[in-house]
Amino acid sequence: MPMIIxxxxxxxxxxxxxxxxxxxxxxxxxxRREPFPAEWREILRARxxxxxxxPADLQxxxxxxxxxxxxxxxxxxxxxxxxxxxxRVTVAAQACLLLLNRRAGYFRNLRQILIYPGAFIVDRVxxxxxxxxxxxxxxxxxESWTQGQVILxxxxxxxxxxxxxxxxxxxxxxxAHQLDQEKGHAxxxxxxxxxxxxxxxxxxxxTEFEKLQAQxxxxxxxxxSYYGATNPAEFFAVTSEVFFERPQExxxxxxxxxxxxxxxxxxxxxxxx
Length: 273
Known about the structure:
The protein is of the alpha/beta class. It folds into two domains: 27-185, CATH 1.10.472.150; 187-273, 3-Layer(aba) Sandwich (Collagenase (Catalytic Domain)), CATH 3.40.390.10. Helix content is 54%, strand content 12%. The protein has a four-stranded mixed β-sheet with strand order 1-2-6-5. It has a two-stranded antiparallel sheet with strand order 3-4. 34% of the residues are buried. Mean pLDDT is 90; it is low at 8-18. InterPro entries: MetalloPept_cat_dom_sf, MtfA_fam, MtfA_N.
């Protein structure tokens, strides 16, 4: 009898685990069927001009993704900041750009978005070139953690949303990191659609990463922020910003890199303007 009970319990656990993804998708479908709130639409008009350049089908898709995102993610105000619906919608609209036309996992590891009023200070211990530990204080506009948090400066979030063609967007940057971190760590090689794509991805991104490093060392101007020369993970996040905000220049000067990012994100921002 005990063996029968153990077997039955094990079977129930297996059935529950198998049904959980289905239940999640059913819940998300129900959320996506709900009307898009008028208040959110007004916030999009006021704060996210990028929304207006999207084709109608992608506008609808973005709104549906936002509904799920806002239903599932927790927002926390830091340093006395009270999180408003304006903040939630503005962040969600930019983050969900990265989910268009993809099998949306809604940043599956992400649980919380922490928002500071402005740039925030982080104290870290880092090793210098001689192996000596040093305390370093950094002023940041955003950060993405593998533990399931994204931290954002609200001032920088607003600036990134307001100017859609400067190649600088802290939300796109940090949520690109979240995609990269889905495998547990960020190294500039997020999950791709097929194993065969990794070789080409590595060739193209490594070539352009090394080129940016050389430009940063020499002071030569670049379409990309020198911050992208820090490591491959930052390069992926920086080029993601430019891909969405300055696609014409990227496609003209970095066609292979643009092609790789277009295949990854499954959109072509060149066709939006």
